[in-house]
């Protein structure tokens, strides 16, 4: 069982280009999340999905979009990348959304993105 | 606003005990999580507290006081592999996790 996979592992991107970060989980978790992690800051939620077919905005959604066509996949798209989107991006999933011990989030290995 | 505070960095000696504190102010409370994150890797789940008191799991223990908005992670018998960042996260009223910036723990021989 792989858990959560992300692709690519790292990417250097020219400003203005479109980029999709991929995330796939095989745990049949209902909820999925995208975070960015920047030095000196906590993980910040970009978008989330409580179940297939639904998505919601997190703390820092501007410049990003997501879709959740099925349970396993949750791609994150940067429509027109800017240097401030340089960060490490983590995808996570949990059995169910919300608080509680059953909602422990499990993380993918991350994508290191540099926008020049 | 919502806020999670942790020390930025701590240093401890191999074999010793270290306590990492976390204070929080959030809109609502739906549990507190501790995660470990080694450099260049993903966060991994360590512990979860929703009721006041101490939860023990091997060398790691986590304590919660909801009235004080306070938690700590206690690591015993420190090993070199415990060198990592430790992240505190709180579930808020919207059931989203609010994350602290993490505490970098340096273990010296």
Largest interface: A-B, 22 and 22 residues
Uncertain regions of chain B: pLDDT < 50 for 5+ in a row? none
Could you give the order of the helices and strands of chain B? EEEEEEEEEEE
Topology order of chain A in helix (H) and strand (E) letters: EEEEEEEEEEE
Largest sheet of chain A: 7 strands, mixed
Strand content of chain B: over 45%
**Residue ranges of chain A: pLDDT <50 for 5 or more in a row?**
none
Count the helices of chain A. How many? 0
Q: Report how far apart the termini of chain A are.
A: 36 Å
- Name the average pLDDT of chain A: 93
Radius of gyration of chain A: 13 Å
Number of helices of chain B: 0
Q: Approximately what portion of the residues of chain A adopt beta-strand conformation?
A: 35-45%
Query: What characteristic shape of chain A results from the CA principal axes?
Result: globular
Major beta-sheet overview of chain B: 6 strands, mixed
Question: Count the strands of chain A?
Answer: 11
Structure description:
- The complex is a heterodimer of chains A (116) and B (109).
- Chain A is built from no helices and eleven strands.
- In chain A, strands 2, 4, 5, 6, 9, 10 and 11 form a seven-stranded mixed sheet that branches. In chain A, strands 1-3-8-7 form a four-stranded antiparallel sheet, with no helix packed on it.
- In chain A, strand 5 (44-49) and strand 6 (56-57) form a beta hairpin.
- By secondary structure, chain A is an all-beta fold.
- With 109 residues, chain B is mainly β.
- In chain B, 0% of the residues lie in helices and 57% in strands.
- Chain B contains no helices and eleven strands.
- In chain B, the strands form two sheets. In chain B, strands 2, 4, 5, 9, 10 and 11 form a six-stranded mixed sheet that branches.
- Chain B starts with a strand and ends with a strand.
- The mean pLDDT of chain B is 95.
- The A-B interface holds A 40-45, 48, 58, 90, 97-101, 103-110 and B 4, 30-31, 33, 41-45, 48, 50, 87, 89, 91, 95-102.
């Amino acid at each position: 069982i792989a858990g959560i996979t992300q692709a690519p592992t790292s990417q250097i991107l020219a400003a203005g280009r479109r980029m999709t970060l991929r995330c796939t989980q095989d745990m049949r978790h209902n909820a999925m999340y995208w975070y960015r992690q920047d030095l000196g800051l906590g993980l910040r939620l970009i978008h989330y999905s409580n179940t297939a077919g639904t998505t919601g905005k997190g703390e820092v959604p501007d410049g990003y979009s997501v879709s959740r066509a099925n349970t396993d996949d949750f791609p994150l798209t940067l429509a027109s990348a800017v240097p401030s989107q340089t960060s490490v991006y983590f995808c996570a999933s949990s059995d169910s959304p919300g608080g509680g011990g059953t909602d422990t989030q499990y993380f993918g290995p991350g994508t290191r993105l540099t926008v020049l | 606003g919502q806020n999670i505070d942790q020390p930025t960095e701590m240093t401890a000696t191999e074999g010793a005990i270290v306590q990492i504190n976390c204070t929080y102010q959030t809109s609502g409370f739906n549990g507190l999580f501790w995660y470990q994150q080694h450099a260049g890797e993903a966060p991994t789940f360590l512990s979860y507290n929703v009721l006041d008191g101490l939860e023990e799991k091997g060398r790691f223990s986590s304590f919660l006081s909801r009235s004080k908005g306070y938690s700590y992670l206690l690591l015993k018998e420190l090993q070199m592999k415990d060198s990592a960042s430790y992240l505190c996260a709180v579930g808020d009223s919207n059931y989203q996790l609010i994350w602290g910036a993490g505490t970098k723990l340096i273990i010296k021989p």
